[in-house]
């Protein structure tokens, strides 16, 4: 749940910040990866990191998960989930495709809905396996 809600919050916040706040000139607009994903902005990425980390901590409070571990997991998935997204964008660009499938036309396809989650699930798994025993349970 921490990984799912953390990465989904990061993705949604990155879109909102990049499209509506940075896109309107309030923060400026600095493209993150113009070749692979020209609409992604540095501002959206930073907003996504903050929102994803916060969402992970909120989930930890609700589920009685160690807060520090959840915060680290939220930060990790928010920062590194971008690489899953950009890797699928690279594959689509190399294949000359706009969408990875027809299930969600105009939104990149079904794979675009899961690309960040692919990396995030692995990241959180290894954080829990290797660092989990170091953190006492919350509460």
Tell me briefly what this model is:
This protein is mainly alpha-helical. 67% of the residues lie in helices and 6% in strands.
Characterization of this structure:
- Strands 1-2 form a two-stranded antiparallel ribbon.
- The mean pLDDT is 80.
- Helix 2 packs across helix 3 and helix 3 runs antiparallel to helix 4.
- It has helices at 2-21, 42-63, 67-95, 110-131, and strands at 31-33, 37-41.
- It is mostly helical and 139 residues long.
Helix content: 55-70%
Please give the alpha-carbon distance between the first and last residues. 18 Å
Gross morphology: globular
Give the strand order, joined by hyphens, for the main sheet: 1-2
Any chance you could write out the topology, listing elements then pairs?
Elements: H1 2-21, E1 31-33, E2 37-41, H2 42-63, H3 67-95, H4 110-131
Antiparallel strand pairs: 1-2
Helix pairs in contact: 1-2, 1-3, 1-4, 2-3, 3-4
